[in-house]
Amino acid sequence: MTGLVCSLAAGFLLALMSSSVVAQPQPFITVASTTSTEESGLFGHLLPAFAKDTGIQVRVVAVGTGQALKIGERGDCDVVLVHDWAAELTFVEHGFGIGRREVMYNDFVLLGPKGDPAHVYGGKDIVAALRRIAAANAPFVARGDDSGTSKAELRLWSEAGIDPKKTGGGWYRDTGSGMGPTLNAAAAMDGYTLSDRGTWLSFKNKRTLTIAVEGDRRLFNQYGVMLVNPAIHPHVKQELGRRFIEWLTSAPGQQAIADYKVGGAQLFFPDAKGAPS
Amino acid sequence: MPDLIDAFAAAWQLVLTGDPTLVAIVSLSLGISLTAVLFASVLGLPLGALLAVLRFPGRNVLVVVVNALMGLPPVVAGLFVYLLLSRSGPLGDLGLLFTPTAMVIAQVVLVTPIIAAITRQVVEDLWQEYGELYTLDGVGRVRTVGSLLWLGRFGLLTAVLAGIGRAAAEVGAVLIVGGNIAGVTRTMTTAITLETSRGDLTLALGLGIILLSLILAINATAQFVRNTARRAAGI
Fold first, then answer.
1. I want to staple B120 with a disulfide (CB 3.0 to 4.6 A). Which of A201, A217, B48, B83 is the partner?
2. Which residues contact B198 (CB under 8 A, 6 or more apart)?
3. What mean pLDDT is predicted for residues A120-141?
């Protein structure tokens, strides 16, 4: 009985070890990033190009921005690529990250269900739209997971002068999960939700959801990349990490970002410039 | 219903084409879970048997704790191992976080109590039945552990299978300590989570069907081996 498990496990253990032995020669870095970059398929497009140019393998751990920064703070990755400008600057200020560079942007879109109960379709003013949703007590599905999108959404609510968690009535639903699960929930509940455009375009379970509001300047979504500070975490692969950051912000990297399209639509817009902030 | 049919079709398609990514994910899943169950058996079988035959102060408390740990939420086990292996944690220098080894460790933590608890029950029943034959002192009881485990080997297969089922099905622990890195730590369950996130529910369910079939196949093999061995042993 245990013999069966033993032999099976031993076989796989050998296979596992041999595969890691084979994988050893290729240098790699670990990047903590956001679900939006992974789930939209951007990394699937960028990383092979980077590996081809440099021979460096990139291992992406895709979580919310809040968690990605935490992974960086604990020294469990070499590079952080996220989208929460304010949190990134705090991260750098506290000395956890160095050499922050802006890489690309996309934008957030407000998605709504068929029937548009809050009458916000086609609007350009995101804050006015949020006020209408609150006034109509229309279901709004929120991330609530300390991600970049969640923080952007909460900033917009505060601009609208509304504290959605305190208004009651059950229309504001906090899923505490990633963008994908939140979109699944919004599609199932016929609710409104805020998403980054990249995840939305590559998302496959849209049901009746469509873009309700887009194009407001306040929906701008900047991505930044930085190296985890080797002065705090000496094991950080700083040279490989720097090469990744340099490549992303260089002409070939920026071009690769611009080239990534889903259904003919460009998902991310390169905007790297100048020296590290 | 059409969703379900599509999912079966997707699963079939993946298996038929022998998708290399799928093959890698399945091998990694099985490799991690079976390795974890192997270590958990090495720890859990003797531990459970000792708990069954020895009498010492605090034994009842320990039995309750081991039984309760069968319900340890995978995400808690994952978090515990994450904090241990994180660069800022006590074992950080090993650099094991986000590797298959970390996933095996987390699953050993999850599975050992299951194997130990079921083993304790099986061996305790045997002990009550045959204990008088041994009528031995404390040291002798320890020596009986080996023969009791052998005597209960067919019942203990269930303990090991329960462990395999738990290990292959959980996602909470491997997601946290493995990081779901494509080609490195992406298993069946974390791939299912990812595809669900991407809204590709058909593919997610298709992967789920393949996972279920694998667990079914492992159980069928175990049943076959048990029956054959029983006949050979004349039990």
1. B48
2. A39, A180, A202, A203, A204
3. 96
What is the set of domains in chain A, with CATH numbers? Answer: 27-106+221-270 (3.40.190.10), 107-219 (3.40.190.10)
Write down the pTM of the prediction. 0.87
Asked whether the predicted pLDDT for residue B181 surpasses 60, the reply is: yes
Q: Which residue has the tokens 């990490």?
A: A241
Q: Which of B34, B174, B186, B196 to mutate to test the interface with A (most CBs of A within 10 A)?
A: B34
| Residue A74 token pair | 């604990």
- Phi and psi at A237, nearest 5°, equal -80, 80
Pairwise CB contact (< 8 Å): B201 & A1: no
Average pLDDT, chain A: 90
- Give the Cβ contact number of residue B59 at 10 Å: 13
How many CA atoms does the CB half-sphere of A228 hold within 13 Å?
26
Give residue A62's Cα distance to chain centre.
7
Decide which of A5 and B113 is more confident: B113
What is the identity of the amino acid at A176?
G
The partner residues of A109 in beta bridges, in order of sequence, read: A195
CA–CA dist A3, A20 (Å, integer) = 25
Neighbour tally for A147: CB within 10 Å: 28
Query: CB–CB of B87 and A178 under 8 A?
Result: no
Q: Is A60 on the interface with B (CB under 8 A)?
A: yes
Q: Which domains does chain B have, with CATH numbers?
A: 2-233 (1.10.3720.10)
Cβ neighbours of A232 in B, within 8 Å: none
Tell me which chain B residues have a C-beta less than 8 angstroms from the C-beta of A201.
Answer: none
Q: Where are the alpha helices (DSSP H) in chain A?
A: 2-23, 35-39, 42-54, 65-73, 85-93, 126-135, 148-159, 179-189, 197-202, 238-249, 251-259
Cα-based torsion angle of the residue sequence A210, B195, A102, A84 in order, rounded to the nearest 10 degrees: 70
- d(CA B213, CA B226) in angstroms, rounded, equals 20
The least confident of A13-22, A42-51, A212-221, B161-170 is: A13-22
CA atoms of A16 and A24, how far apart (whole Å): 12
pLDDT at B112 exceeding the cut of 90: yes
CA distance B74 to B187: 15
Give the mean pLDDT of B98-127.
96
Nearest to B225 among A1, A12, A62 (CB): A1
pLDDT in tens, B13-48: 888 888 888 899 999 999 999 999 999 999 999 999
The H or E element spanning position A97 is strand A97-112
Q: What is the pLDDT of residue A22?
A: 46
